[in-house]
Design brief:
By secondary structure, the protein is mainly alpha-helical. β1 (about 65) and β2 form a beta hairpin. α22 packs across α24.
């Protein structure tokens, strides 16, 4: 693109300011969005980062000298509450939120000041720990601890009470015979109220509205409801033909029947799995690289992505879905294809971020186990047991014994993540081979059998060289000689790196050199063992072993025993998915509700603990959780139940009186206006341009191009295309490289790939508008959109109306028509002799189409 064309596009996009009166570029409603408070409350992700990363660091390295628990505050500093950190000690504040460079804590732990090296008389903390501390302070130093927190044994006594009283740990209601007891449906006196509900859930919503002197909003228009339904179920905009058929069905059979028919049709489409599979991938912290310092690619992660999409399309029961991901390798199977699918499912446990630059193998294993405990409990229970690694949980009923009981389960599990040792990383992880007859394709190439033999010979020679070198060193030491020139550190490193590279190549092929289909996943170790309770979580301070078990605060009638010869993952999955478990079904129902209504019944979707918010409609949550299990744990049936409700059908129009009573819409007096997620925005752009490739690509950019090579220098990696957004496939298939996301995902609030994320942040920042205006991807789609319009209609006004129907599922009003036609018909003064009228018209259509794609209406749902 030359500078003249760039300037032309920019000037035309700026014409959006002239369209300020369009509904398409107006703000979401008459409400003025509140300005962001500089001291805004920390997000769930920030608090999770503190609990999983920062609190353990402070407890391990600082509490001995700077806490009420140790009854000492050297230098006047305590670090056991946020107030104490901000107040600081003799030298001033230890933490300055948002400014790591001005925080004395960072100065101390980085040894930047020779007189202030912390922890004292110890090596500097690892690079990953320093990075976590920097991130924490930069993001505002989220810290729920307060001065009033009681030290030592007080937490355990308080936790016992919370286990008995906190709503999330209480069992779902049951009758005397042990069967579930549905909460009683509210009843209404007036005929209008009795006629309003369409599903049982509506009765709970209406009762709560009436309790707060509120009324539900009128139904949304069929067109708006239809657009909402399509984006929510399949993540794509409906076509004008789709809407016409829907309206025809309404005329013939009524709105209820038309909605049921369209809902069932959408649920059966393969795009359902792509849409709702992405929701689960957020929770599963899906990523295709290790993150952290080395950031090595995970070339086989895409297989888990495809497994999730297929499972959602099959409507695999949620209890089975969880069991396969936690213990698929331990489930029976009848054929190789099923065995392969179950192995791929366990990629859930292997996907997490890893510090592949770790020097201590035991520490690395402890971190992998910790991440697995955190991910499983946070995703399934919306409450992390990992917070009890260094101390009993400060807020929820999980003890250190609970943590190490689970740690034994995961320590008895071998994790296969498929990275070879290289100079960029010290830790290698073998890939998990799939049955060769299962029909799964390998993306890497085969090698000749002679090459396999050569590699194996080289490896044998290296191993023998290392063995001989170590023996020579021991002999020299025994004889009192200097061994430094016999077998040097350089020799050892050369053998280490070269052996790792060879093993990495051999792991990909059979003995005959045939490329093996590989995946990430887990298997039980040959040796099953319990782990010791580590004082303050430190590897070097082991105590007594803790038998493998499940958190004691949640008791089931059925006693699930862990066999001595198995890790216990299958039994753990059975415990999590037992119908009597009070949290599993509630958490999933709440996650689905959040995606369809904009906020969960429990607004802290990833935190059902005592620091989270209580449910706005507790009886409704229990009703849906019981119904979910009674319907066979079917996610499709759960989605269907919600979208066919009268609550879902409401309009999103602003009502000042209702807004003043319930500004957050917690009682659901209207449909919440929602901005589409990054993937839906990008997919919608591709859909209206007519370029969307609905097929599934083979593998991923990471698996096809980068493979298992380091990508730590991501800004300089020539294998990565400049535009990671460039594919025409659906956005769920874009590469998810930690710390290097495609622009559209990064700018429009994609889930952090290293954390369990049930609710993404939603921001409105200038860089989003700049992306839509200047991105080559969006500009190319606008050009294709314009060409598509010109191929469909000859008459100018019909083209404009068709553009609006494709983008917004409606026709333009009179003013929009007038402004559009005026812009498209206006003649330009030629800026050079090369500008023809035809080129001028094409440029105007391109800019007009791009302007439509840039509007707020395009990327928001009413």
């Amino acid at each position: 693109m030359n500078i003249a064309e760039w300037n032309f596009r920019l000037s035309r996009c700026l014409l959006l300011a002239l369209f300020a009166g369009w509904p398409g570029v107006a703000t979401l409603s008459q409400e003025k969005p509140p300005e962001k408070d500089a001291a805004a409350a920390p997000t769930e992700a920030q608090l999770a980062h503190f609990e999983s990363k920062i609190r353990p660091i402070l407890v391990k390295h600082c509490y001995d000298c700077h806490s009420a628990e140790a009854d000492t505050a050297e230098g006047g500093l305590r670090v056991d509450s946020r107030e104490a950190l901000l107040r600081g000690g003799d030298r001033g504040p230890a933490v300055v939120p948002g400014d790591p460079g001005a925080s004395l804590l960072i100065t101390a732990v980085t040894h930047a000041d020779a007189d202030l090296k912390m922890p004292p008389k110890q090596p500097q903390l690892s690079a990953s720990v320093l990075a976590d501390l920097n991130t924490w302070i930069k993001d505002g130093a989220a810290d729920p601890r307060r001065e009033s927190e009681k030290p030592k044994g007080a937490a355990q006594a308080w936790n016992k009470g919370s286990a008995e009283d906190h709503w999330a740990y209480l069992p779902l209601p049951r009758n005397e015979d042990g069967k579930f007891k549905q909460p009683s449906l509210p009843t209404f006196k007036s005929e209008v109220d009795r006629e309003w509900p369409r599903r049982n859930l509506d009765s709970f919503i209406l009762a709560k509205l009436k309790n707060h002197d509120l009324s539900p909003s009128p139904d949304a228009s069929p067109a708006k409801l239809f657009r909402r339904l399509h984006f929510d179920i399949v993540g794509l905009p409906p076509t004008p033909d789709d809407l016409q058929q829907f309206q025809q069905r309404i005329a013939e059979a009524g709105l209820d029947a038309a909605l049921e028919h369209e809902t069932d049709r959408l649920l059966a489409l393969p795009q359902f799995g792509e849409r709702w599979g992405r929701h689960w991938l957020d929770v599963a912290r899906f990523g295709e690289s290790s993150g952290k310092e080395a950031n090595i690619s995970f070339p086989y992660a895409w297989r888990y992505r495809d497994y999730v999409i297929d499972a959602l399309n099959r409507d695999l029961p949620y209890d089975r879905f969880l069991t396969e991901q936690i213990a698929g390798d331990l489930l029976p199977y009848e054929e190789d294809a099923e065995r392969a699918r179950l192995l791929i499912a366990t990629g859930f446990l292997a996907l997490g971020p890893k510090n592949l630059d770790a020097m201590n193998p035991l520490q690395f294993l402890a971190e992998v186990v910790d991440e697995q405990i955190d991910s499983v409990t946070r995703s399934v229970l919306a409450s992390s047991v990992a917070c009890a690694r260094c101390h009993d949980h400060k807020f929820d009923p999980f003890s250190m014994r609970d943590y190490y009981a689970l740690a034994g389960i995961f320590a008895s599990t071998e994790t296969f993540f498929g990275t070879a040792v290289s100079p960029a990383n010290r830790v290698g992880g073998k890939p998990l081979p799939l049955p060769t007859k299962a029909g799964y394709q390998a993306l890497h190439a085969s090698i000749p059998a002679s090459k396999v033999a050569e590699l194996q010979s080289d490896l044998d020679k290296l191993q023998q060289e290392e063995k001989d070198g170590r023996a020579a060193v021991q002999k020299a030491i025994a004889e009192g000689k200097d061994p430094s020139d016999i077998f040097t550190i350089t020799d050892a490193l050369r053998i280490f790196w070269r052996s790792g590279a060879i093993r990495g190549e051999l792991n990909k092929v059979s003995e005959r050199g045939e490329a093996l289909p590989l995946t990430m996943g887990v298997l039980d170790r040959e040796q099953i063992f319990d782990v010791p309770l580590l004082e303050r979580g430190e590897i070097g301070r082991p105590g007594k072993s803790v038998p493998r078990a499940f958190p004691a605060a949640i008791q089931l009638d059925a006693k699930i025993e862990i066999p001595s010869n198995r890790s216990g993952r299958l039994e753990f999955a059975q415990w999590l998915t037992h119908p009597q478990h009070p949290m599993t079904s509630r958490v999933l129902v709440n996650r689905v509700w959040k995606h369809l209504f904009g906020a969960g019944l429990v607004s802290t979707v990833d935190n059902f603990g005592t620091t989270g918010t209580p449910p706005s409609h507790p009886e409704l949550l229990d009703h849906l959780a019981i119904q979910f299990m009674e319907n066979g744990w079917s996610i499709k049936q759960l989605v269907r139940e919600m979208v066919l409700s009268r609550t879902y059908r409401q309009a999103s129009d602003y009502n000042e009186a209702a807004f003043l009573k319930d500004p957050d819409n917690r009682w659901l007096w209207r449909a919440s206006k929602r901005r589409l997620e990054a993937e839906a925005i990008r997919d919608a752009i591709l859909a209206v341009s007519g370029e969307l490739d609905r097929s599934r690509p083979i593998g991923s950019l990471v698996g096809r191009v980068i493979m298992d090579k380091p990508i730590s220098l991501i800004g300089l990696d020539k294998r990565l295309p400049n535009d990671l957004d460039g594919s025409l496939h659906r956005s769920v298939y874009l590469p998810v490289i930690r710390d290097r996301l495609p622009d559209v995902l990064d700018l429009f609030d994609f889930a952090e790939p290293g954390q369990v994320t049930g609710a993404r942040e939603t921001t409105n920042v200038p860089t989003q508008a700049l992306y839509l205006m200047n991105s080559p991807f969006v500009q190319s789609r606008a050009d294709a959109f314009a060409a598509r319009l010109q191929n469909q209609e000859e008459e100018l006004l019909q083209r404009v109306r068709l553009a609006f129907r494709w983008c917004y599922n409606r026709v333009p009003d009179a003013e929009e028509e007038q402004r559009s036609l005026a812009f498209l018909q206006r003649s330009l003064e030629p800026s050079s002799e090369q500008n023809s009228k035809q080129e001028d018209a094409t440029d105007r259509w391109n800019s007009f189409c791009q302007a439509l794609l840039c509007t707020a209406e395009f990327r928001n749902l009413d």
